[in-house]
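Bug report

Summary: structure tokens for Transposase differ between web form and batch submission.
Environment: batch mode, default settings.
Steps: 1) Submit the sequence below via batch. 2) Compare with the web form result.

Sequence submitted:
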Amino acid sequence: MLITGDVRAFICRDTVDMRKSIDGLSYLVQPLLGQNPLSGHLFVFVSRDRSKVKILYWDRTGFALWYKRLERRRFPSPATLAQRDFSLAELNAWLEGIEIPALRPHRGVQATRVT
């Protein structure tokens, strides 16, 4: 599994039935997230009780599905993240239980020389 730094993550605002597998989730990407499921981006789906997360992505040869179930506690509310795409660093923080604010992090700078 190779996920590059330019991959973005999109989280579904609506709760999803965690019995859905790859096909069921891939059919939800376009209507719920407005994205192409074959784009290579990560599509995050959260259960009603926020104890389970599934992440769907296309990796050039087929769909892959990542699943995590918390034994205690719940994932932070996806409400602020559902309003925009977010980075892999933000996704990792969210998966660790850190609330992500609606603010964007500092933008990267393309340096051409050192002064």
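Above is the batch result. After comparison, the two runs are identical; trailing whitespace caused the diff. Residues 9-95 form one domain. The chain has one domain: 9-95.
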